[in-house]
Amino acid sequence: MTEQVSGQVAAVVILAAGAGTRMRSTRSKLLHAVAGQSLLSHAVDAADALAPQRLVVVVGHEREQVAAHLAEIAPHALTAVQEQQRGTGDAVRCGLAALEASEGEVVVTMGDVPLLTGETLAELVSQHRATGDAVTILSSELDDPTGYGRIVRDDDGDQVAAIVEQRDCTPEQATIREINAGIYVFDGPVLRDGLASLTADNDQGELYLTDVVRFARSAGRGVHSHVLEDRWQTEGVNDRVQLAALNREYNRRIVEEWQRAGVTVVDPATTWIHASVDLGTDVTLLPGTSLEGATTIAAGATIGPDTTLTDVEVGEGATVIRTHGSLAVIGDGATVGPYSFLRPGTQLGVRGKIGAFVETKNAVIGDGAKVPHLTYCGDAEVGEGANIGAGTIFANYDGVSKSTTVIGRHSFVGSNSVLVAPVTVADGSYVAAGSALTDDVDPGQLAIARARQRNIPGWVETRRGDTRTWQAAREAINNEGA
Ligand code: UD1
Ligand code: CA
C-alpha cells in the first residue's frame, strides 16, 4: 500500500525524549497502546516503510523503559540519549550525533503520532525530491490551531518563510490556521548547519528545530509545506483522553477497511480489530468482538457477540459465541460457546464442539469430537468423534505435576466423571456416568468407577416416620397395592 520511494533516505529520526506528564502514568507515554501496539511501534512502522539507511530514536525521559521496549520491537534502531530536554532542535542534534554522516535526506518525526502512515512519509519525501527544497514540512489546516507552531508564508503565499510557535506569534500570525505537524524532510547538510546556528532566543528559551526553516531560506534554499487533509495523522497523544480518541479512530479505519473487503461488522463501535489480524470473505463479527494479535478468521465464520480472541486461528464457517480465547486453533465448521474459555494449546478439529461453560487448555480435540457442557478439559487428547459428557473434569494436576488424559476415537465419557490423569480411555470404549476414573480402559470396554447403588427398604418409615415424605410414600405404596 505504501507508495514506493525510490532510493533510500539516509535517516529517520524519531523524537521521543519528552516527559509525557499529562498521561499521569508510571509507564512512558510511548509504551501506551493504540490497537494493541505501542505508540513507539506505530512510529517505527511508519519510519520503516521508508526503508531508511538508519533509524534513530531520541530518548530521554524514562529512557530505560523506552530503550528496552525498542530493543524488543525494533532491534535495528539506534538510540540516542538527550540528557536534558532543551528543545526539539537539541533533540535532533542528539539524533544526528548517533549517525556517522549527515549527507542525504533526514526525515524527522515524533514518537507519539500513532495514525501517521508510511504512505504519508513517502509522499513527503516525494515532494521534497520533486521540488529540490532544503526542507519539506508536513502541515495541516485546523479550525482551532491553538498551541501549534504556525506556518508563516512568503508574501506571495508560496514558500514557507518561518514556523512561529504560538507563544512567539504576533496577533496577526496567531490567526494563521496552517500548523506545523512537527514532521519534516531535511537536506542533511542544511539540517546540520542550521542546527549549529540555533539560539534559544524565544519565549521558552529552547533550541527550536523549526528555526532551521529561517536558516535554510536565508541560505537561499527552498522550503515548502505539504498540506495533509487527514488531520488525524498529525494528531499526537498527550493524555489518556486523546489516547482513547486516537485508538477509536484508528480502529474505525481498520473496521471500515474490512467492511470494504467483504466482512460484515454489525456494530463497528463495539468491534475492535488489531492491524495484525486477518479476516476472510463473508466473516460476520457480532457486537462486542475484539480480535487481537495474530488472530486469523477464515471465510464464512461468525464471531461474537462478546468475544475476545488473541492469537487464535478460526477455520472456515466456524461459529464462536461469547468466548474468551488465546493461542488456540478452531477447525473448519466447528462451534464454540457460549461462555467458553479457550486457553493456550487448545486445538479443536473440523466440526468439533466446545460448548457452554467449558474451559480448555493444552487440549487437542479431534474432528467431530464434542465437549458440549460444563467441563474442564486440560492436558488432553480427545479422539475424533468422541463425546465428553456434561460436567466431566479432566483432573490433570496432582498438586505437584501435570499429566495427560487420552480419550480414544468415538469413545464416550458419561456425565459428571472425573478423569484422574495420567489415564487412557482407548478407542471405542465407554466410561459410566459419575465415574472417578484412575485406571486405563481397553477398547470395547465399559468402565464403571463408582460405588454400586444400594436401596434400603423401609428407611423412610423408620427414620422419618412423622414427615410428609412418609405420608407421600404411604399413599404411593397404598395406591400400588390398590
Ligand atoms: C512542536 C513544534 C511545533 C509543532 C508541534 C507539533 C518546535 C519548536 N515546535 O511543538 O511547531 O506545531 O511540535 O506537535 O519544534 N522532544 C524531545 N526533546 C526535547 C523537546 C521535545 O525529544 O527537548 C520531543 C517530544 O518528546 C515530542 C516532540 O519532540 O515527541 C515535540 O515536542 P513538544 O514539546 O511536544 O513540541 P511542541 O511544543 O508541541
Ligand atoms: Ca506536542
Automatic annotation (TrEMBL):
A Pfam short name: NTP_transf_3
Gene3D superfamilies cross-referenced by the UniProt entry: Hexapeptide repeat proteins, Spore Coat Polysaccharide Biosynthesis Protein SpsA, Chain A
Region of interest called Pyrophosphorylase, as start-end residue ranges on this chain: 1-240
Active-site residue numbers: 373
Pathway: Bacterial outer membrane biogenesis; LPS lipid A biosynthesis; Nucleotide-sugar biosynthesis; UDP-N-acetyl-alpha-D-glucosamine biosynthesis; UDP-N-acetyl-alpha-D-glucosamine from N-acetyl-alpha-D-glucosamine 1-phosphate: step 1/1; Nucleotide-sugar biosynthesis; UDP-N-acetyl-alpha-D-glucosamine biosynthesis; N-acetyl-alpha-D-glucosamine 1-phosphate from alpha-D-glucosamine 6-phosphate (route II): step 2/2
EC number: 2.7.7.23, 2.3.1.157
Cofactor: Mg(2+)
Enzyme class per UniProt: transferase
Region (N-acetyltransferase): 262-482
Ligand binding (Mg(2+)): 112, 238
Record-annotated MobA-like NTP transferase domain positions: 12-141
Keyword Cytoplasm carried by entry: yes
Any one GO molecular-function label of the UniProt entry: UDP-N-acetylglucosamine diphosphorylase activity
Catalyzed reactions: alpha-D-glucosamine 1-phosphate + acetyl-CoA = N-acetyl-alpha-D-glucosamine 1-phosphate + CoA + H(+); N-acetyl-alpha-D-glucosamine 1-phosphate + UTP + H(+) = UDP-N-acetyl-alpha-D-glucosamine + diphosphate
Record region (Linker): 241-261
Function field: Catalyzes the last two sequential reactions in the de novo biosynthetic pathway for UDP-N-acetylglucosamine (UDP-GlcNAc). The C-terminal domain catalyzes the transfer of acetyl group from acetyl coenzyme A to glucosamine-1-phosphate (GlcN-1-P) to produce N-acetylglucosamine-1-phosphate (GlcNAc-1-P), which is converted into UDP-GlcNAc by the transfer of uridine 5-monophosphate (from uridine 5-triphosphate), a reaction catalyzed by the N-terminal domain.
Protein name per the record: Bifunctional protein GlmU
Organism: Propioniciclava soli
Taxonomic classification: Bacteria, Bacillati, Actinomycetota, Actinomycetes, Propionibacteriales
Gene: glmU
